[in-house]
From TrEMBL:
Cofactor: FAD; [4Fe-4S] cluster
Source organism per UniProt: Medioppia subpectinata
The keyword Zinc-finger belongs to this UniProt entry's keyword annotation: no
Gene3D superfamilies: 3.30.70.20, 3.30.9.90, FAD/NAD(P)-binding domain (3.50.50.60)
Domain spans labelled ETF-QO/FixC ubiquinone-binding: 255-352
Keyword flag Flavoprotein: yes
Annotated ETF-QO/FixX C-terminal domain residues: 495-556
GO MF, one annotated term: 4 iron, 4 sulfur cluster binding
Domain FAD/NAD(P)-binding residues, every copy: 54-136
Broad enzyme group: oxidoreductase
Entries under InterPro entries matching the protein: ETF-QO, ETF-QO/FixC_UQ-bd, ETF-QO/FixX_C, FAD/NAD-bd_sf, FAD/NAD-binding_dom
Protein name: Electron transfer flavoprotein-ubiquinone oxidoreductase
Length: 563
């Protein structure tokens, strides 16, 4: 059979299977609109039988591609036939990666030592660092010295989406089977409860969950080892945490949200390789966050500007998007955006794992492992994680290949050595050194206490203090009831420097068909109105960077929560 959906074309011999009934969910989970099964639609999923995948990788970001490249390098160098398949939900590799980043290349140096000769889109070494503490109208410039987390000598300013696209080309050249536009929708388990692959999503489903005329079942990709590289808060990783109790011996993950815009600015203000960071205004001392601004080296004078806010903030009226827009009005950065030549050309946002060392879960389970930003290897003080994500994936790949070479790779194989090998690597050393910076902001001194701790123990002692601070309870417990907080008045968008949310989302290129299920689900649809709206005045309408949550009401009916 030839199976085709989107860009996936498999000419393997396949068989139809009437697998256990699969439910297509729209919100809320406990009120399913439609149930689709093999019996209901007259066909089952297809399973590739002739050449079952040795390894399936979920996610085509820096980590997933690094794992794929490393596996094929080892196999090719040893003249072994090892089949590696990677699925990525974006229609093109790199399309879902936010542009504009400052990266360390130490993992890439190990993975592809001749990356410079291979025309990698990494051409802008950092030329200068600027770090400022902002007040509402002024700023204090803080010297950037070696050892400080914002010291970027030797790093590169890149458009990370282009780097990921380039990594994809390297993987394909080595023989990795890459299927973009194919989300992994379900984890497959064998009769013993071991992970044995993934199923791709069904297509052609109406909003109520019923099949359209164009409906097609997804395909089961069976594997001896499945590597999950979904990124922050991946939907499949969350299921693995629960099923295998992977988070039993670590602290709850702490999250942040990062918002970013790409601008074409006045050439006179553009300095390729310049990196700028700020802390302070517009946030108060008890709200963790700050800004970054990178000068890219492109044919056009481009800058990437962004703002990160920890999701353990207290005031339910805070809007991360509006804080970002307000930040751009500060006199130290506003000239980049309000000159006649300035033009905003892109917008995006993503979640961040900020918990670091204390929040790393167990990384392996029967049938696979977690790599990259999925378990969370971000160095939050540096605001960098690409190098750690890549290295973790490379270590996992080394472990899996060793089992393959020793003929020990089988369904249910757990790469247990991966976790110990990671602990012996520079990734673990780096995260341990930075472990206390983020929780040091949780004192009554807030930002000021965190800055003092960072200078004394991170810069001065490189994390050698004999204690480890705790993050405390999950982020959401920090939110105060609305009656205890004052609403925040934000300036109205001017359409030049600051913008509304809808016009910003339009720049993302996100496009969803109207008659399709919501990709977001609720565990309990009574909570938004009964708790979130009643107690916290509906923070969902403010914290989402894409405006997908809304409370709808009129004079004759109570409020209804819509996604």
């Amino acid at each position: 059979h030839i199976y085709t959906t989107g860009t996936l074309q498999s000419t393997c011999e396949c068989t139809l299977t009437s697998s256990p009934q699969r439910i297509q969910r729209s919100h809320p989970i406990h009120k399913t609109c439609g149930q689709l099964s093999a019996a209901a639609i007259g066909c089952g999923r297809m399973i590739c039988l002739r050449q079952p995948q040795t390894v399936v990788i979920v996610g085509g970001g820096p980590a997933g591609l690094s794992a794929a490249i490393r596996l094929k390098q080892l196999a090719n160098n040893n003249q072994k036939e090892l089949r590696v398949t990677l699925v990525e939900k974006a229609s093109q590799i790199g399309l879902h990666t936010l542009s504009g980043a400052c990266i360390e290349t130490k993992a890439l140096d190990e993975l592809i030592p001749d990356w410079r000769d291979r025309s990698a889109p990494i051409n802008t070494p950092v030329t200068s660092d600027v770090f400022r503490f902002l007040t509402e109208k002024a700023s204090i410039k803080i010297p950037v010295l070696p050892g400080m987390p914002v010291y970027n000598h030797g790093n590169y300013v890149v458009r990370l989406g282009q780097v990921v696209e380039w990594l994809g080309a390297q993987a394909e050249e080595l023989g990795v089977d890459i299927y973009p536009g194919i989300p992994a929708a379900e984890i497959l388990y064998d009769e013993s409860g071991n992970v044995c692959g993934i199923a791709t999503n069904d297509v052609g489903i109406k909003k109520d969950g019923s099949p359209k005329d164009s409906f097609e079942r997804g395909m089961e990709l069976r594997a001896k080892c499945t590597v999950f590289a979904e990124g922050c808060h991946g939907s499949l990783a969350k299921q693995l945490y629960k099923k295998f109790n992977l988070r039993d011996k670590c602290e709850p993950q702490s999250y942040g949200i990062g918002l970013k815009e790409v601008w074409e600015t006045d050439p006179a203000l553009h300095k390729p390789g310049r990196v700028e960071h700020t802390v302070g205004w517009p946030l108060d001392k008890d709200t963790y966050g700050g800004s970054f601004l990178y000068h890219l080296n492109e044919p056009q004078p481009l800058i990437a500007v962004g703002f990160v806010i920890g999701l353990d903030y207290q005031n339910p009226y805070l809007s991360p998007f509006k804080e970002f827009q307000r930040f751009k009005l500060h006199p130290t950065v506003r000239p980049y955006f309000d000159s006649p030549a300035a033009k905003r050309i892109a917008y995006g946002a993503r979640a961040l794992n900020e918990g670091g060392f204390q929040s790393i879960p167990k990384l392996t389970f029967p049938g696979g492992c977690l790599v990259g930003d999925s378990p969370g290897f971000l160095n939050m003080p540096k605001i960098k994680g690409t190098h750690n994500a890549m290295k973790s994936a490379m270590i996992a790949a080394d472990t899996v290949y060793e089992a393959f070479a020793a003929d020990k790779l089988h369904i249910g194989y757990e790469p247990k050595e991966y976790e110990q090998n990671l602990r012996n690597s520079w990734v673990w050393k780096e995260l341990k050194a930075a472990r206390n910076v983020r929780p040091s902001f949780h004192t009554k001194a807030g930002l000021y206490g965190g800055l003092a701790y960072t200078g004394l123990f991170y810069v001065g002692l490189r994390g050698l203090e004999p204690w480890t601070l705790k993050h405390g309870p999950p982020d959401h417990t920090s939110l105060k009831p609305a009656k205890q907080c004052a609403p925040i008045e934000y300036p109205k968008p001017d359409g030049k420097v600051t913008f509304d949310l809808l016009s910003s989302v339009a720049l993302t290129g996100t496009n969803h068909e109207g008659d399709q299920p919501a990709h977001l689900t609720l565990m309990d649809d009574s909570v938004p109105v009964a708790t979130n709206l009643a107690v916290y005045d509906g923070p969902e309408g403010r914290f989402c960077p894409a405006g997908v949550y809304e409370f709808v009401a009129d004079e004759t009916s109570p409020p209804v929560f819509e996604v």
